[in-house]
Amino acid sequence: MIETVITSKTLIGFLSDTKSFESITNDYFQILDLDKNGMLSPSELRQGLNNVVAVESEVAPGDETDNVYNAIFERFGEDLVPKNFRDLIAEILTAMARGIGNSPVIMVVHNDGLIMKAVLHESKQGK
């Protein structure tokens, strides 16, 4: 885990670079696709999504968490293909960006999670 500062521009800039975003989400898809069948089952998504997107938080199983996953599966289907996974991640990051706004926010994130990839992407763009 690492502490970092982000704004909505960090996430939106990452999403806007479609080549980088697609490449990175494809990499995460391959990691989560444990049976290597080219689709993410509900079980695979539940096991790995928190590590891909998460900040330091406790995600406990329960009705609220089940409702979130059920909504994901209703919208994107029971088995996610890479494009649907990419769309899901884009929606999550866009929602986070809206919530964060333009004020800098300090977050504790996974070293190799998507948020950290967005931070690294932003730092490379500034050079």
From TrEMBL:
Q: Name one GO molecular function term.
A: calcium ion binding
Please tell me whether the keyword Manganese is annotated for this protein. Answer: no
Question: What positions does the domain EF-hand occupy?
Answer: 20-55
- The answer to whether keyword Calcium applies is yes
> What are the UniProt keywords, alphabetically?
Calcium
Q: What is this protein called?
A: EF-hand domain-containing protein
Q: Which organism is it from?
A: Arabidopsis thaliana (Mouse-ear cress)
